[in-house]
Amino acid sequence: MNYEVKEEGKFKYIETKGGPENLMLLHGLFGALSNFEGILNYFGQSYNVIVPILPIFELPIRKVSLSGLVDHVIKFVEYKGYRKVHVLGNSLGGHISLLYALAQPERIASVILTGSSGLFESAMGSTFPKRGDYQFIKKKTEDTFYDPKVASKELVDEVFDIVNDRNKAIRVIATAKSAIRHNLGDKLDQIKVPTLLIWGSQDQVTPPFVGEKFHELIENSRLIMFDKCGHAPMMEHPKAFNEYLETFLSEVTARELTS
Prior knowledge:
By secondary structure, the chain is of the alpha/beta class. It has a single domain (about 5-120, about 180-259), classed as Rossmann fold. It has 9 helices and 8 strands. It has an 8-stranded mixed beta sheet, sandwiched between helices. Helix 1 (about 35-45) packs across helix 9 and helix 4 crosses helix 5 (about 155-165). It is globular, with a radius of gyration of 17 Å.
């Protein structure tokens, strides 16, 4: 199912308008929209699934940071007039989800994190990959997953394009450094809404101990660990991921209705 990317002012986004509950998906640094295809197809008809395109490559260079991206999400939600959102983030998108939840607690119904940064992450290694080295980029992208075949040519090409575009590469490095500076270990006890953590047992970017630490620090959280799974469970195990997510969202919504 293809959803049109809408453009209104400084906002680009997808919105399915499939139901009254808002489920907002936040992508990572190298997150193609195809990363969320399984969630969009499964929930798009029953939830209002929203995917704001984060302006990682459009922000003025002085504003390239996690704070700049969180400000963009805050303004987007205000612009759209959503009362509350369930926010789901993968990788850097999880980090932004947490910062958004901390900044706007009254607008959050629940938080879902999968392979989130915010405590520890190991992205491209200690050095940025050499420009023009397609095989290196292909291998690095494949290493993100337990099954390398999940790294489609579309995804590898997108990462390759970013690395070989000096303007984009500078912004990726600046954003990644900002993420490392924004360690949330001492703030996670402030997250009070129901939180679902879905992690891959073979995640090399945010290893399993990171999911366990999030679970320890976020009081009202539930941790699901997927075996034979890397950094993007929603791509490697879409059926199981969507079933756990559906159960969680139904429980949160039912609880809100009776409270």
